[in-house]
Amino acid sequence: MLYKTRLAIVDDHPVVIEGLQKLLLNVDEIDLAGTFTSGSDFIQFLKNSSIELVILDISLPDINGTDLCKQIKTIAPETIVLAFSNHTERSVVMKMLQNGASGYLLKNVSAVELLNCINESLKGQIVFSEAVKEIITKPGLQNFSEIPKLTKREKEILCLISEGRITIDIAKMLFLSKLTVETHRKNLLQKFKAKNVAELIKIASKEGFL
Amino acid sequence: MLYKTRLAIVDDHPVVIEGLQKLLLNVDEIDLAGTFTSGSDFIQFLKNSSIELVILDISLPDINGTDLCKQIKTIAPETIVLAFSNHTERSVVMKMLQNGASGYLLKNVSAVELLNCINESLKGQIVFSEAVKEIITKPGLQNFSEIPKLTKREKEILCLISEGRITIDIAKMLFLSKLTVETHRKNLLQKFKAKNVAELIKIASKEGFL
DNA sequence: GTAAATATACCTGTTTACAGGTATAAAGCA
DNA sequence: TGCTTTATACCTGTAAACAGGTATATTTAC
């Protein structure tokens, strides 16, 4: 008796599910354990069944795919999550990885590439479709917008701010006047075009400064 | 005449450089264009020479490897960066990817695995040494510490805060009292054990909430 | 060697955040 | 069903951030 990999599909487009289903039915080693059009449906299912690999769309009606990925990895850390999406934004790819995905495929992958990625990820590999590799390794292409250039001091202070330190403490730690730190803080807000620290830290974090 | 890949090594431990050098000298297709023990040395070099692949240590005397990686990808987006480090923290791995690295190898990789990774990354693959794959796909193992569980409302407000909105505006947008939003904000600070929004946003971002 | 960028310091007023409470209706779960 | 969590609302005072300036050594870069 052949061992079969239990696989699930989560995608709110029935057409996509149909397509994947047809594709995977031909594969002997795969047991399509279920298809779901909403995140909560799948979570419910996952609580009672074990799934080895799930193909996960990112745009879902009830919950976004990145959050869902995190939930899946919390409930079933061994379940392999492959993102399957149209989103080409670098930030989305990174967030999926952040949340434990084992790979990211754009929906334009070929059948061969898809099957290959499924197999590789089952072996523990981390897989990306061709276009995604470019997106990951060429950060400049996307957000060439403006990555502000910070001085050493600014980076230092940015970092301390992100740790929750208040201005006066930062001043003491760096042997500066409180007012100097305020100036740096002001410059940071300007450089990042942020309205306040909250936005500042978000952008800085996204740009990889923290 | 054989075409050779121009490769550089940046590592502040001379021993590591020696070791890599010896290993790579046996490889015909590789031209070891230079070895560097500090980040600024390499940056200087990179401005005048083209390098196809650089093996990059993360702990350096003058600049940290993640920042250096970002600089490299800015100056020479085509240069492939392979992180080569002892750091097993998930956050470090993610930051290197964030900054455009094509892979992450722990220093305990075997010679075979290393050469294999170099070759694969030259083909455009994104590569990780075995242990790193585990680190990426099992977020829970490391920071199982406490990932706070947020309600839908809290996520909503967290997100708005991260966009730089102030309390009163958030209240208006969600048709809530300013005071209610303040309570949510307070709860967020508590759940994330943050001293203020700056720290809140940093942690939330690291945990993948944003 | 000169110009530009950086780091430093100061001032004033207004707005916002934060700490420390209390309280209640509604939704969700057992 | 009854218990718990979630979302809602309110109060008060203090601390901190932010906006809007000006100004000057000291590096760094060209």
Ordered list of secondary-structure elements with their pairings:
The structure is a homodimer of 210-residue chains.
Chain A: E1 5-10, H1 14-25, E2 30-36, H2 39-46, E3 53-56, H3 65-75, E4 80-85, H4 90-98, E5 103-106, H5 111-122, E6 127-128, H6 130-137, H7 139-142, H8 152-162, H9 167-173, H10 178-191, H11 197-206
Parallel strand pairs in A: 1-2, 1-3, 3-4, 4-5, 5-6
The structure holds a DNA duplex (30 and 30 nucleotides).
Summary keywords:
Arc Repressor Mutant, subunit A, DNA-binding, alpha/beta, 210 residues, homodimer, Rossmann fold, six-stranded parallel β-sheet, 6 strands
CATH architectural arrangement of the largest domain in chain A: 3-Layer(aba) Sandwich
Strands of the widest sheet of chain A, in order across it, are 2-1-3-4-5-6
- Give me the count of strands of chain A: 6
The biggest sheet of chain A amounts to: 6 strands, parallel
Number of domains of chain A: 2
Class from secondary-structure proportions of chain A:
alpha/beta
- CATH hierarchy, class of the largest domain in chain A: Alpha Beta
Radius of gyration of chain A: 22 Å
Describe this structure in words.
Chains A, B: Keywords: DNA-binding, Phosphoprotein. The structure is a homodimer of 210-residue chains. Chain A contains eleven helices and six strands. With 210 residues, chain A is of the alpha/beta class. Chain A folds into two domains: 5-138, 3-Layer(aba) Sandwich (Rossmann fold); 152-206, Arc Repressor Mutant, subunit A (Orthogonal Bundle). The model of chain A has no long low-confidence stretch (mean pLDDT 88). At the A-B interface, helix 3, helix 4, helix 6, helix 7 and helix 8 of A face helix 3, helix 4, helix 6, helix 7 and helix 11 of B. Chain A binds a DNA duplex (30 and 30 nucleotides) through residues 151-154, 166-168, 176-180, 182-187, 189, 195-197.
